Amino acid sequence: MLSCKRILLIIGGGIAAFKALDLIRRLRERGAEVTPVLTRAGAEFVTPLSVSALAGSRVFTDLFDLTDEAEMGHIQLSRSADLVVVAPATADLMAKMAQGQADDLASTLLLATDTPVLIAPAMNVRMWQHPATQRNIATLRSDGVSFVGPGEGDMACGEHGPGRMAESLEIVAAIEGALADGPLKGRRILVTSGPTHEPIDPVRYIANRSSGAQGTAIARALVALGAEVVFVTGPADVPPPERVDLRRVETAREMLAACEAALPVDAAICAAAVADWRMATAATSKMKKTAGGLPQLEFAENPDILASLSQRSEERPALVIGFAAETDDLEANASAKRLRKGCDWIVANDVSAATGIMGGTENAVLLITATGTEAWPRMPKAEVAQRLAQRIAEHLAREVAIP
Ligand code: CTP
Fold first, then answer.
1. Whose CA is nearest to atom 18 of ligand 1?
2. For a Cys-Cys bond, which of 93, 122, 205, 325 suits 88, CB 3.0-4.6 Å?
3. How remote is the CA of residue 37 from the centroid of ligand 1, in Å?
4. What is the pLDDT of residues 243-284, one digit of tens each?
């Protein structure tokens, strides 16, 4: 099951570190290659020698070990695995991860990686229950980090409750789950994301405030279910997702061309905030202030990518999904938009200021299809993406055979 899978195992500094030795043995029995990283505190509990003997590999410990940097830099080390596993994940390591700190090898690898991360927390029950740790857990979950455990029981410190690291075989099962092929394996899906920039002259452009966060979260969720994702993005604020076919564009017309070049796809999700207008003719040199008065800007309408994909007679994706951000009459406006554009589903959200959704981390959406409207409860944007990806997987499984 795990044969030839590459696991980067980060061993944090807790009494449960001794269980990591058994975990390494179980993983290797199943054919996995384990590259161990031992934190300074971890090395107080298990020795580098026993870790490397069991892993059959050298153990990495220090960010500033120049030999390591020459042979394999920390970036490459963080990305050469199929999965990064942190066991035990101490309260301190989780806090660093949630904060994005990078002050030793383990935390730097966790910040630099583009590989899925699974953590097995282990700490004293009070530390686990502390509001600070609970905040960190919520942050890590919404960053897409998976958890296994902790379990409840008697702890090495003599207390009882949640905080005990999951047993090796539970962690192995979670690793197998994280590496399993998902329900979108064999599906090719197009996602548009971010704003577009429409030039006025060589130095000025029309833009909008889209960060690209929702499109990026959707692409990540699709990849996690095994899809091959073509990610066409305008100049977004958030970094693009990992393991996608990335196509960067600037303007709406470039975005349309990139989308058309990506066809055929099983599904298209148009999450981009495409500028509706561009300059009829962008100036080729910088527009100067003149005594003649203010410049007159003449607009032209941009192509509507969602409508154009939805209304294709050839190579129309089997499922086309659009977004509608509304401030009034959410359901009526979004339903009308679905019909006007010709897409199959619309994900509608209320972006009036009072909802706090625009620029926030949570979203409350309506999923509008030909058969009706579903109201999803308010949840983190990453969860909206996961739920949507799951619905896409179910729909494609029902409606579209994999060739
Ligand atoms: N869209 C697109 N190409 C455009 C404009 C919009 O693909 N040129 C897509 C967006 O990606 C999104 C949906 O269409 O999926 C939003 O539609 P739009 O008509 O732009 O709606 P809003 O901007 O939400 O609202 P309005 O009704 O005010 O235009």
1. 324
2. 122
3. 47
4. 677 889 999 999 999 999 888 899 999 999 999 999 999 999
- Tell me which residues are annotated as active site: 157
For residue 276, the CA-to-ligand 1 centroid distance in Å is: 8
pLDDT tens digits, one per residue of 292-338: 889 999 999 999 999 999 999 999 999 999 999 999 999 999 999 99
With helix as H, strand as E and coil as C, how does the chain read? Answer: CCCCCEEEEEECCCCCHHHHHHHHHHHHHCCCEEEEEECCCHHHCCCHHHHHHHHCCCCECCCCCHHHHHHCCHHHHHHCCCEEEEEEECHHHHHHHHHCCCCCHHHHHHHHCCCCEEEEECCCHHHHHCHHHHHHHHHHHHCCCEECCCEEEECCCCCEEEEECCCHHHHHHHHHHHHCCCCCCCCEEEEEECECCEECCCCCEECCCCCCHHHHHHHHHHHHCCCEEEEEECCCCCCCCCCCEEEECCCHHHHHHHHHHHCCCCEEEECCECCCEEECCCCCCCCCCECCECCCCCEEECCCHHHHHHCCCCCCCCEEEEEEEECCCHHHHHHHHHHHHCCCEEEEEECCHHHCCCCCCEECEEEEECCEEEECCCEEHHHHHHHHHHHHHHHHHHHCCCC
Atom number of ligand 1 nearest to Cα 326:
24
Question: Which protein residues touch ligand 1 with a CB less than 6 Å away?
Answer: 192, 252, 270, 272, 274, 276, 302, 304-306, 322-325
> What pTM does this model have?
0.64
Centre of ligand 1 to C-alpha 338, Å, is 10
**Among the atoms of ligand 1, which is closest to the Cα of residue 302?**
8
- The tens digit of pLDDT for each residue in 338-381 reads 999 999 999 999 888 888 777 677 889 999 999 999 999 999 88
The CA 273 to ligand 1 mean position distance, Å, reads 7
